Amino acid sequence: MSLDQQTSGRSPDGSAGDADYGRIGADYTTYRRPEPRIAAAIRDALGPVRTVLNVGAGAGSYEPTDLDLVAVEPSAQMRAQRPAGLVEAIDATAEQLPFADNAFDGAMATFTVHQWRDLAAGLAEVRRVTAGPVVVLTCDPTLLKRFWLYEYAPEAIETEARRYPPIETVTAALGGGQAFGVPIPLDCSDGFGEAYYGRPERLLDPGARQANSAWSFVAPEVHERFTEHLGRDLADGTWDTRHGHLRDQQHFDGSLVMIVSPGDLIYHR
Questions:
Q1: How high does pLDDT run on average in the chain?
Q2: CA 196 vs CA 8, 156, 208: distances in Å
Q3: pLDDT tens across 148-174, in order?
Q4: How far, CA to CA in Å, does 159 sit from each of 41, 171, 203?
Q5: Positive or negative CA dihedral for 231, 232, 234, 238?
């Protein structure tokens, strides 16, 4: 561990948030593949920008390939999983971005703000280096209990609700903006928890749960109780009696939200 990691609270892997991706991130890209419909919504929200910063970029999901993009990611494990063809990510944190004011036309942050150690500082930095729109894909903690998982592992949902910041907090820290609900498709290729709303069997896979950081904060007995309870209810039809309609429901309006803060970009600059 470097001196910088020791003084900043970063893990040996470099992870700067509350989750240690050196420990839980080895198979992340097996389960967390970008969903094209969500990617299209993010790209549309960025608009006619030319340069974009991806903060907390992870393995590169949702990065537009038609733009001049710079990625920032503190975890070595996640940087190593970025596929060929994407830019190499810079080892830095949201709270200390090594860029000049208004260096980028736009910025994006997907499934990451809930893990930043100092949310206000990180968002202030993102806004400082971004002249135009900042697009944040996150979850509304007030809506997490819509997901049937709350019946089986309330500890996981309550953990997420504590970690995700209120939508109005993010919007205010960025200087204003709007939040839009993002429908989750039934065949969503990005395996965040609610992506399995109509495919409950998938969450019996320990790897699928590990790819969702909330599960790393709950005790082993919660995992055991969850798999036993859900497995039994799937086997005897109880889950389908209660929630079987979700297997054919093409979209789920859960907690997934996209925040768009427009900024003051002059596009012809």
A1: 90
A2: 35, 15, 10
A3: 999 999 999 999 999 999 999 999 999
A4: 27, 22, 17
A5: negative
